[in-house]
Prior knowledge:
Blueprint: E1 2-6, H1 17-26, E2 32-36, E3 40-44, E4 59-62, H2 63-68, H3 73-80, H4 92-114, H5 118-127, H6 136-161, H7 166-169, H8 199-215, H9 219-224, E5 228-232, E6 237-241, E7 248-255, E8 259-263, E9 273-276, H10 283-297
Amino acid sequence: MIAxxxxxxxxxxxxxxxxxxxxxxxxxSIKLGIxxxxxxxxxxxxxxxxxxxxxxxxxxxxxxxxxDGRFDEATVNGIRGLRKETxxxxxxxxKARDNLLLSRFTKLIGSWxxxxxxxxxxxxxxxxGFEGKMVxxxxxxxxxxxxxxxxxxxxxxxLERIGFAEREVFKIEKPQxxxxxxxxxxxxxxxxxxxxxxxxxxxxFEYCGRRLAFLVKDEALFREIDNIKYxxxxxxxxxxxxxxxxxxxxNFRALPNNQFEFVFPEVENVEPKIVTNKLxxxxxxxxAIFMKRAQILK
Length: 298
């Protein structure tokens, strides 16, 4: 059973936990307590003591943040777990505990990246086979290297995650020899990747995957989101579904004054060009073009 306490928009929800906690603790069949003002949602479970609602929410989110694309993967996965198809009351406490630990671990790693503690630096040195004495000077000189190792690892993982393999980062395009042109009747033009995605391009690409997870309603379409890829070309950034040309979703360029330009294919009910500084402005066009492409190329 789920208990939901609804308050007026703008209420200080932290002061209204008493009522939902009373329901939760009194009725043992309640496994999830949610308090909301219609915009903000705080989800509580009993991760510490059975049938006693935790003070701290294991999942919290705002619909305004979701609409603007300001949310992380942990939040998305938490919301997915609350869907009717995946929600399991018997596992909610365990999943809530995992979510709380994950949140704490993430913050901990973030603090390590900024300023690694001495114990962590010593662990790195020991694990790397350092044979000298770990005096204060060695620890101080090694700390920046630990920070660099963390950031380099995270940067590499981000590139791998968005489909930019490490071997492509250092790829150099060789000039083509003057030979007779090959048959170019293929429906899919081969275009080399020219550059590592910029920060804004990476932001746009990741937004597409997260946003489509909410825009599509069909489970089969939901699985097809994994087939969205990108091409960082010399003059533009292309996001596409399966095939670069036939499956193009849009071309993207970052303009001056923090403006984004999106050019969509000529498809019914899709605005061909959108210039904006708010990613959510492309939601309607993005959803329509993705569903169109998925129907054709699936």
